[in-house]
Each structure stands twice: as structure tokens, then as C-alpha cells.
Amino acid sequence: MMLGGLFGGSLVPSQNMYDPLTSQRMILQRNANYVLRVRAGPDMQHLETIDVNYERTPMKIDTPNFKGYVTVRVFGFNGLMSDPCHPPPAQADYFADGFSRKALYSIQVVGQFIGHGLTADNIMFGNYFDQRLPLPPFSGLFEWFMKRMDRTLVLDMKSDTPSAASPLLSTVQKLSYWKGGLHGSEREHVPEINNKILRELHPIDGAFDSAGRVAEYFPLKDSLNQDSKKRRRYFEKASHRQRWKVKSEDMYAFDFYSPFIDVNHQCVRMPNAVVEPMPFFDGDMPLRYECRTRDGRHTFFIVQFELIPASRTRPLSSYQNRPRRQYRDSGYEREILDPPPPYTEEA
To answer: Which residues form the Domain of unknown function at the cortex domain (predicted)?
Structure first.
């Protein structure tokens, strides 16, 4: 479940939880002061702005540790794109059919984990921070609650570099797996979601649902296949994770999402409709997800949600009633990264 999967890293009881007007003012103020940017890459030294909700051009990662594609969706996204000439899409088809009630954002990854001796117990996914967190009194109670929600969660919240991570196969909501060399049937018409991935990788039938989202297809046992809850419970046992070998030629597609975290509006939406500003998520503390080995020696990929001060961006003329912003060059990043190619039927 990890921090972001539960309440967006909320270890601090909101002082404004029962004061919706104060909470709303805080959220509006933060929205006015910051602009959301999402970066992804194979490690911290090679993060690039990813085009959120841009289905046809997922970010490709090709390293000795991981080969695959990363796609990020955010419900109602109006942040920064890699090319300011491309406004954020009005909405991703991923959130159609009321799916936004289940997911306010999504991190989808399709690819191969490269390495020898990897098991399901070695590959961790979760939140990592670069500086100590200001933990409040009684934070141990919240840690106990999170471990009850995710029994595989590994917490290290009191160190100088805190983290909250779980084994990948026991924490993601949807997971599909198929052996390398096995491909599904050729499809002339594929959903716009994952257009490029479906055309290039030809995943086995059942790995994606009819809407193009990652489905639960994990034929470890007939009783586990297509049942994410049973798969997650199965991998709660360390012995099961250690027996599952992660081979370089095998393909994994998974989707991690949260119905609580609204990164676009920088707040947490609780099940009882209480809305509060996201703790620890500001210009100095990004919300970072990493997939790495348990010992931290190898990183497979990173997705980082960042709040950029609005003063470091400049608005551009709107396009089809959609706002656009440009990031001011600060000397350490190009103002415009390689723009996504225009859509064609072959894309």
C-alpha cells in the first residue's frame, strides 16, 4: 500500500480536517502557487518530463536493469508538458466509464526486469524521500495502521532518507504476466489507450482489458488468475515471493493507482469526502515512486510528482480552451525536451 497508496503520505493528522473552509483555502492557495510536473526515468540522474495522459507516446526506458514503457495518467491534469506547444490532453480515456472513482492518478509500466537471481522478494516499489520527515507525536500509530493495510510494507520513516515500500507483486492493483516469446492475436483495431504498446509488444490475450487498461492476468495458479486480491495475498508470504523467479525474458504489465491522492489539486480526498492538503508534498518535497532492488543497489525506474513554483513558469496562450505553461530554463534542464511526434495511424 505504501504511503502514497494509502493517504498520499499522510502521517500527520490534519489540523483542518474538521474545518473544510480553512482546508479549502489552503488547497486553493497551493494550487495558485505551484504547477504540477511529472518526471520519470531510469534513475535520479536521468529524469525527464513525461507527457501525462499522452497515451500514444509512453516514455521508453532501456537500461541494463529494465526495458519497457512508463505511462502516467492524472485525472484533470493541467500541469507542465515536455513541449509547451502541446497542451495537456483534455482527459485520458483511461478514466472513462467512471474509473476516476477508483483512480485519481495511475502509474502504468510494461516491460522486462533484467538481471540474474531476481525473485519477487527482491523487487520493491514505493515512496522514497531525500530528507528527514517531521514526524508528529503518535506517528507510530499511523505506521501500525499502514502495516495492517499492507502486511508486506517495509517502513523506515525515522532515518535521514525515509522510505515506505512493498514487494512489487504484492502491492500493485493490477498485474499481468506472460512468458517472453508468447504473444496474443494480431489486432487491427486497438484501443487508443496503450496504442503503441499494444501494437509493438503484442501482449498475450487477457493482459489488457477491452478498454486498454492493464487487466489481472497472472496464471500462477488457476485460483489466482484474474483475481488481484488473491494474488496480492499469495505474495504476502515471503516464501512464495522467494520461489517466484523473475526471468529477463518474461514480460510484466502492472498498474498502480490511488483513489485518495489528487496530485493535480495537491490534496487528499478521504473516503468520507473530507479533503485536506497533501502533507510533505511541496516545492521542496516531491512525491517519488521508485522501483528498485531490496538492497538498493539497482534501480529499475522512477516516477516523480513535483510541484514547481508558478514563478518559475510562464503562461502561454491557451489552445482549444486548455491552458498552457512553459517552464523557465534554470540552467539544469532544457526548456523543451524532445516533443512527442504527431499522431499517425502507425504510431
So the answer is: 36-307
Which of 11, 5, 13, 16 has its CA nearest to residue 104? 5
C-beta atoms surrounding 150 within 10 Å? 21
Q: How far, in Å, CA of 147 to CA of 164, rounded?
A: 10
Highest mean pLDDT among 72-81, 217-226, 248-257: 248-257
Asked if residues 80 and 36 have their Cβ atoms less than 8 Å apart, the reply is yes
Q: Which of 137, 129, 132, 168 is nearest to 3 (CA)?
A: 129
Distance CA 209, CA 325 (A): 34
The model's pTM is: 0.84
Residue 346 φ/ψ, nearest 5 degrees: -85, -5
Please tell me which residue, 345 or 291, carries the higher pLDDT value. 291
Q: How far apart are the first and last CA of the chain?
A: 35
Q: Strand ranges (DSSP E) for 259-328?
A: 261-262, 267-269, 275-277, 287-293, 299-309, 313-319, 322-327
pLDDT tens per residue, range 30-77: 777 888 999 999 999 999 999 999 888 899 999 999 999 999 999 988
How is residue 77 written as a grid cell? 491534469
**pLDDT for res 20:** 62
Q: Is 281:266 a contact under the CB 8 Å cutoff?
A: yes
For residues 301-306, average pLDDT = 96
Residues 6+ apart with CB under 8 A from 33: 309, 310
Distance of alpha carbon 249 from its chain centroid, rounded?
24
Q: What pLDDT shows up at residue 342?
A: 47
Residue 206 has pLDDT above 90, yes or no: no
Supply the DSSP symbol for 45. Answer: G
Alpha-carbon distance of 343 to 62, in angstroms, equals: 23
The ranges assigned to domains in the chain are 2-327
